[in-house]
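job 3f2a | input accepted
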Amino acid sequence: MSPPVVIPSRPQDVLESALETTAFNLEQLPAADPNLLEIAFAGRSNVGKSSLINALINRKGLARTSNTPGKTRSINIYRCRVRGESLLRLVDLPGYGYAQVSHTERRAWEPLVETFLSSRTNLWGVALVIDGRRTPEASDQEMADWLGHAGIPYLAALTKTDRTSQKERAQALRGSEGLLRSLGARDVLPVSAVKNTNIARLWTALGALRI
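job 3f2a | predicted structure (211 res):
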């Protein structure tokens, strides 16, 4: 019998975490394991995916952050042991939407990302990470639409909300929530990796993607 799937309810429930794989092509990806679910993180370059992963696993520097948009060109997979002896993988996908990345590089990344998302049999769902200070950009909407049409359960995590006022956050959320839900988002949640805002709620929302 397969062990039960356990999604953490808070960062402290992640007992151990480590970088498992850095993959630049499909052949470098670890084999899918039906007992090891995967949660992927997609988003524009420099939107804060790595910082969000670090906040979720209660680690400050495991997922490496960069101030250079477009620098992450690989799929980085982090293996976590969760309270209750369950295992899961958090998958940091290459950022999209950075204009100075060459068309050749984008053509190399896009099949890698799309093939990963559409073929991983143990993919639990996707956190689509979006800059919460503004309405989702065209590339965000394209990714949301692609996920929706592919039937991949996903939620939207609106980052960098700590840099705005309460009024600005409310306006941005109103402008984003209806649009993203119309494109198939199961939930739209403002978060902050800096202040740990809604990080535990994000785990709960991720756990509900398959319910």
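job 3f2a | The radius of gyration is 16 Å.
job 3f2a | closed
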